[in-house]
Amino acid sequence: MPSYNPPLRDMQFLMHEVFKVTDAYQAMPQHADVDADTINAVLEEAGKFAANVTFPLNISGDEEGCHLDKTTHEVTTPKGYKEAYAQFVEGGWPALSCDTKYGGQGLPFVVNSALYEMLNSANQAWTMYPGLSHGAYEALHAHGSPELQAKYLPKLTSGEWTGTMCLTEPHCGTDLGLLRSKAEPQADGSYKITGNKIFISAGEHDFTSNIIHLVLARLPDAPAGSKGISLFVVPKYLVNADGSLGARNGIYCGGLEHKMGIKSNATAQIVMEDAVGELVGQPNKGLQAMFVMMNAARLGVGNQSLGLTEVAFQNALAYAKDRLQMRSLSGTKAKDKPADPIIVHPDVRRMLLTAKAYAEGGRALSTFCALLIDQELNHPDEKVRSDSADLVALLTPIVKAFLTDNGWIATTQSQQVFGGHGFIKEWGMEQYVRDNRINMIYEGTNGVQALDLLGRKVLGNQGASLKKFGKLIAKLVEEEGVNEKMSEFITPVAMLGEQMTKFTTEIGFKGMQNPDEVGAASVDYLRVAGHLVFGYLFARMAQVSLRAIADGNTDPFYVAKLQVARFYFAKLFPETATLMRTARAGGKTLMDSDAALA
Q: Is 443 a catalytic residue?
């Protein structure tokens, strides 16, 4: 049976030593009174909830799955799931970073991000139920009218109700311009919505008395394509003027998907038959409003793979220390045993360190982005808000794609550490692999994320956002460039930063002549950009660790940090050279392939 220990020490290291979040919060009136003790206390309790309440349900929930009553259209979740959610609500966890105006606790997003990492490690499928709600809350908080906010936000904040987003339809995936769901205006200002949606995570369940669906649909006179999409809030049960529940709305679950993983999350086929909805934001401007939720979801999906990377690593490490097989190539290590533990073998260490590096780099990036979001939303300086927003926009597709690709590498290599036992259900590793696989697909496949990064976020603004990130690297180089002990961490990042400018310019010129060149290079480009970001973050972690050791701190934590950073730069970071070469190879061999693909 697998186990899970919340990585509180590493979270505290990033928050308090690397990013010094409480110093940053001093400049934000909303968070000025948040101190390290408060953050640590919240994280400790969050870790207990994840490890003691949701983690024990992970395997049993996967085995049991969700069940749909096709007569009532109601879904029953696995044993213990509903009760765990009740504990989640009772503990105030849904309200952690929500606006105090609606009953939230108003804590920074950094804390909420750490909570969800631990929940994802413990049980990704369960975590998706409250996770989708937080995205619905964010969309309504940003774009809902005061009336809609008063109607829905308090109960989404408390967790009394949950939320979903209904985008995808059977005939279209990421290309939302093709959607067909229709919204007919009514005399009372509401809309009657008809259509079908698929792949709706947490679309139906038995956790709460109401589910608030955010639905994309078209008005009768809407322009074609993505410019003609509007956003509506469509509750499972209509809400009366006094806040009580009214009649059952015309929206229901018509089926559940049979899936490779996340089996205990109800991935629903949603049917709408004259369902009553209310417009969110302006007509035909629904994508702008929904993007708030979609961007939150993309960051959340990266967090899902981060969580699975961490728990897979922990269990692979424990197994490698215990499993005996063969003798060390350099001589017997466990003389009192018939064989050495497999952790003595170089390739086993390579797999373990790969998972550990991707967990620690991913956690650093997730924490960094969360702090940027806190600054974007709450900093009094307009330039800080603007710069933070630009960096979040640049990093969002990297978080989604790079962390989920790395999560796939890490979970499969952690499974490999187990050998044949990794393929057997009782050890839990095969579930982490199965659950992680969806993260590379939904909320926009990683290929779509790569197009977003290169096409929109880099070439779309002539590299302005990328230059802002480059300034962070330049600042670090200026601080540590003459420090010989930092050279092994600084030099690779500085070199790649310089190469990135030329690399980006080359692809941009090719793309002006033939847009397919951007598509051909984009996936490789995103991975190079991901390593540039990770390299910068590992250098910052090494900087803090070297200073701690120089100050006489003997905690082996800092030595471990340096060892992981050295492994990362020696074994993982160098793939950027191959990626830039394959990206520069262009699109001809891909597009001139009609015979091969006939």
A: yes
